[in-house]
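Trying the structure run again after the queue cleared.
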Amino acid sequence: MSGIYQVDCETALFLYAREHNIYMRYKTGPYFGKPTLLAGDYNFGLVEVATTSTLYFAYISTQNTIVSKNLSGDIIFSTPFTRIPGANFNFVFSKVSDEPFLLYPASSCVGSPLQYTFPLLERQAAPFTPCPDGIKTIHPIVSANRLFLLAVCDNQTLLYCISDTLTPHVLLTDNSKELQRLQMQLDSAITQYNELMDVARHYKEEAEKWRGKYWK
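Done. Tokens:
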């Protein structure tokens, strides 16, 4: 299940996947609305990005493509998906300056370049290679409306800053104490996120129990 997104003081919504389908449901007070089907080709990797005006989501489809859609189910971006052997990520879907961006492997080769794009702005950068020796994970960091990418490679860790021209610049390497501090902050944030998701799953399970009990 996704995070729970507040629409107004009484209404919230959330997305969830079941088999090959992605659904959206509204919750008003203690009551849940009927599910709305948003996609029927889901394979794995459902993630969302909330902007000030709406919610976007992305996933890997059964046709092995990365698909990004809005809440109307309209496709805003689609590209073939290739997995890098040994990498712990499939793609990154986040936002900067309230604009969604997508970062994904350009090929399945070790040391593959990464491609990133702002689909709503129709801006796409040239592929770049953060780790020629092989990438393990990559994390987006947004600060002061600037986009940074923390790339954990086989032999080093690098922090990139993405300029307004979508050109990556190396700021720090793993020899930097500042980068080690950022890595600790990121690990702490990931732990807190996982704890919040555990709480959200618990509330979802309780809600489904009450729904099964009273909505027969």
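The chain is about 20% helix and 45% strand. Worth checking whether this holds up in the mutant runs.
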